[in-house]
Every structure is written in structure tokens, then in C-alpha cells.
Amino acid sequence: MQTPLLRKTQFLFAGQFVALFAAGGIVLPFWPYWLGSQGFSANEVALVLAVCTAARVVLAPGISAIADASGNRKRVLFLVALAFLCGLVPFFNLSGFWSILLLWTVVGTLFTTMIPMSDSLSVVATKQLGLDYGRARLWGSLSFIVVSTAAGWFLSGRSADAVLWMLMLAAVVICGTVLLLPDLKTSAKNGKATMAFAEALRQPGFLGFLGVTSMLLASHAVLYGFGTLHWTAAGHSETVVGMLWAEGVILEVLVFAFGGWLLRHLNITGLFLFAVVAGVIRWTVLGVTTDLVWLFLVQALHAGTFAAAHLASVTFIGRSMPDHLGSTAQGLFDACAMGIVFAVAMWGGGALYDAFGGHAFWAMAAMSGIGGVLLLSQWGQLGGHQTATRFSRN
Questions:
Q1: Are 284 and 362 in contact (CB under 8 A)?
Q2: Secondary structure class of 234 (helix, strand, coil)
Q3: HSE of 289 in the Cβ direction (CA atoms, 13 Å)?
Q4: CA within 13 Å, CB half, 142
Q5: Residue 188: predicted pLDDT
Q6: pLDDT at 387
Q7: How many other CB atoms are found less than 10 A from the CB of residue 381?
Q8: Which residues contact 243 (CB under 8 A, 6 or more apart)?
Q9: 8 Å CB contact between 367 and 249
Q10: Are 337 and 217 in contact (CB under 8 A)?
């Protein structure tokens, strides 16, 4: 039974995820639209986004290490959110490709850093207050659906600068929700950030964990980069394609809603195994057909390929990493799985899609398979013995 403090904590973290993913529901679909309104070519838009991804690899772990060193992750998260808000202001009067590229490299990286930092703070709340991470995080997914849909409607017939105003509003709300979060502290860690990185990488199973998660999460590269293009080229309307994307997020929400139950019955390795099997099936089918029935069937597997893998990843970090390394580990995970490896998979996936069209999804199926091999090789380190114990008890 939840105590009043736990209910309040659950509500506040849900609000934090709502604010963060509301901003994501603006940035992901409509920031390229704003860049295009500045007269940038498709290649220039891609370069702005790619440079930001590369910068994330360097800056995100560094900021996370600072949060660990201070012992006050909430304060560091608020300062990052405030810097993101202030960094948006110059865009109203900024022009020129290089100026916008340089500023977005910083501002966009600050935005992407807030999500793993918020995840890290929620892990502390899970340990100290009993927060149910999945049930808080699902509100972020719902927020993304609602805001991205509403933003598209709002932008109709308006200047592209409305994107900036919506982002500013979202940034203000993010700052407010961070201030309302409980003031959870961990022991401060003295020493350089590089020492924190080295200590995190030496933790049992962490390198294997990075290998597994990088393969599983980066296997979404072809889908995120070319899924919409591939499906519309096959004759499916934008409305139908939107429904396919929405289906995936809805299934993601369901996994987070029942995350506690899934962890009790499957544990971390069971969720990773689910992600492996779902990935091999999903990407193989997408490489074979664009038939609408099959598309709707395999989009449901987003529950495994992303949601199960993400829930297992956050839980592994929370269970296996010392408190003073939680943010550092989260930053390294984000920089590796959604930074370096994802960028390489996106670049390689683009070349494969140009050459082979939808068959490029088969390379993503291979990545999921490699993730499975790595998972089996690291089964004990990632908690596989716990999974076996749970199954034997049922």
C-alpha cells in the first residue's frame, strides 16, 4: 500500500517525465521542420542533427559525472534545464547555418542529457522512497503522443517560429517540475570525472551490459531514420503511418505500466531476452514486407525492442551501480547505446537503405541477434541466475 509520501513522489516524477517528453514531442518531429524553414537543405538539417548526436557522446557523460561528484543530482538537473531554457532565446534572432549549428550543438545536447539525468534521479527515488519507475515513466510516453499530435495541429497555418515558442513553454515547465522534485541526495564522490568513468566501467557486468543494450537499442536506427519514408513510398498514407508510430508508443506505455510485474517474473535478463527475440522478428518482417496487416502486427513488438530493453537497462543500473556512480553510469549508457553505436548504425543504415531499400532492416535484425549472443555470454553477470530462480519457483 502506498504511503502519502510515495504517492506524492510518484506524482512529481510522473510530472517531470510529462514535461520532458512534451519537449521531445516538439523537438523530434518539428525541430527539423524549423531548421528547414531557415532555408537549410536536407543535408544541412541532417548535419545539424548529427553533430548534436556526436556532442552528446562527450557532454552527456561529463555532466552526469558532475552530478555524481556533487551528490545533488536535482540541483545539477535544474541547472541543465535552466541552461536549456536560456539557450533557446537566441534562436529567435539567429540566422546562418554555422551559427545555428554551433548553438544547437550545445542546446540540443543539454536537452538530450536531461532525460538520462532524470532517469538517474528516479533510480535514487526507487531505492530511497520506493518509486515505481515504470508507472512514472509511462506518463512521459503518453505526453509525447499527445503533444506531438497537438503541436502538429497548432502549427498548421502558423509560422515555423511557433516551434520555438512551444519549446520555450516546455522548457519553463521542465524547470518548474524539477524544482518540485524531492531533494534526494547521495554521497558526494571526490575525484575527477575520468576516475568516475573508469570506476563505473570496472563494475561487474557493466561492459557486457553496454554491449547488449547498444546492440538492442541502436537496432532501431533504420526504423527511426527511414521507417516513415519506406512506408509512405509503399503507398501508405501519412495518417496510417502516424497510427503505426502511435501503436508502438501505446505498447511501450503498457510495458511501463506493468513494469513492476514484468521485473518480478522475468527479471532483467528475461526482459533483455524478450527484446532480442522481438527485435529479430520485428526487423526481419519489416525487411520482407510492407503489407499493412504485418506492419501493425510487428509494430506491437516495440513493447519488446524498446520498452523492455529500456526498463531492463534502467533497472540494471539502479540495482548494480553504487549510488555515487548512478548518473555516471546512466550517462555512459546513453552516450554508448543512443550516441556512438546509434550514430554508426544510422550512418550505415542510410547507406544500406540507399542500396537495398527495406532489406536494410535485416542488418538491424542481425544487431538484435548479436545482442542476444552477448546477452547469453553475460547471463550470470546481468542477473540471469535470479531469473532462473524465479522461474523455478513458479
A1: yes
A2: coil
A3: 12
A4: 15
A5: 56
A6: 43
A7: 17
A8: none
A9: no
A10: yes
Q: Specify the pLDDT at position 223.
A: 87
For 35, residues 6+ apart whose C-beta sits below 8 A from its C-beta are: 44, 45, 48, 100
- The C-alpha cell at 147 is 503533444
Question: Exposure of 374 by Cβ count < 10 A (0-12 exposed, 13-18 middle, 19+ buried)?
Answer: buried
Query: Which residue in 327, 272, 304, 335 sits closest to 119, CA to CA?
Result: 327
| Neighbour-count burial for 5-38, b at 16+ CB within 10 Å, e otherwise | eeeebbebbbbbbbbbbbbbbbbebbbbebbeeb
The answer to whether the beta carbons of residues 6 and 136 sit under 8 Å apart is no
DSSP state of 89: G
Could you tell me the three cell numbers for 111?
A: 536537452
- Residue 388: its pLDDT value, please? 39
CA dist., res. 75 & res. 61, Å (int)? 17
Tell me how far apart the alpha carbons of residues 47 and 41 are, in angstroms, rounded to a whole number. Answer: 10
State how far the Cα of 350 lies from the Cα of 336, in Å rounded to an integer.
19
For the chain, residues with pLDDT lower than 70 are 1-2, 42, 46, 68, 185-197, 238, 383-394
DSSP 8-state class, residue 40: -
Largest CA distance in the chain: 63
> What number of residues does the chain have?
394
The three cell numbers of residue 212 are 547488449
CA distance 90 to 92: 5
Q: What is the pLDDT of residues 322-340, one digit of tens each?
A: 877 777 787 788 778 877 8
Q: Distance (Å, rounded) from C-alpha 188 to C-alpha 199?
A: 15
Amino acid, single-letter form, for residue 29: P
State the Cα–Cα distance between residues 386 and 378, nearest whole angstrom. Answer: 13
Measured CA to CA, the distance from residue 337 to residue 320 in angstroms comes to 18
- 135 touches 10 (CB < 8 A): yes
Cell of 235: 503507398
Q: In this predicted model, what pLDDT tens digit does every residue of 155-168 receive, in sequence order?
A: 877 888 998 999 99
